[in-house]
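Changelog note: in this version the structure field was regenerated for every chain. One regenerated record is shown below for reference.
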Amino acid sequence: MIQKLTKFSYRFLFLAILWYRITMLWSRKKGTQVKKYEKVEDIPKAFNYGRKYRWDESFGIKSDHLTHPSRLQHRLNEESEEFGDCDDHAIYWCAALLKSGLAKKVWFAIYSMENEDGSERAAHAVCVFADKENQLYWADYRNPRKIEQAKDYMIQSASAYNKIAIAGAITLVRGLKKDDTPIFGTITRLKP
């Protein structure tokens, strides 16, 4: 039953994307631009391969929001010990790849997963992108991994957590505004 509800909730992903747009507005760091990278491998190195992970928190309580890439860059520039959670890593990947011209297409991707017995559910966000030769990859905290189809990101990623993917979606990031705000496009739901 819970799995069916989770899958059904992906029909309303546009609401989450709307919330992410709003939260990026108040987290933007004026005057800070996302860095341009020469190589894809330099991006995860910048946030120390996820070792600067930080839970979302607002007003002293855990909340789920998307931090603007400029704020994330500011944290990197200040050599902060904290960077962001999985969706922050994913949106930074999206912005950095686009800003650096290292990808042909970029998607902000999320999915839900659970243990094989249906217990312990979780969600995760990653970046999916096509390089200049149209090879697909997905990335979260480490160097990107190749995939054949877009849906493969959730299968590979869930496997790393010893879980199975149950539902997912990718949202095209069409480009960046002058202040490095990602411009979200089409949402595509995927089945594992």
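Spot check on this record: The two ends are 18 Å apart (CA to CA). Residues 13-27 form the longest helix (15 residues).
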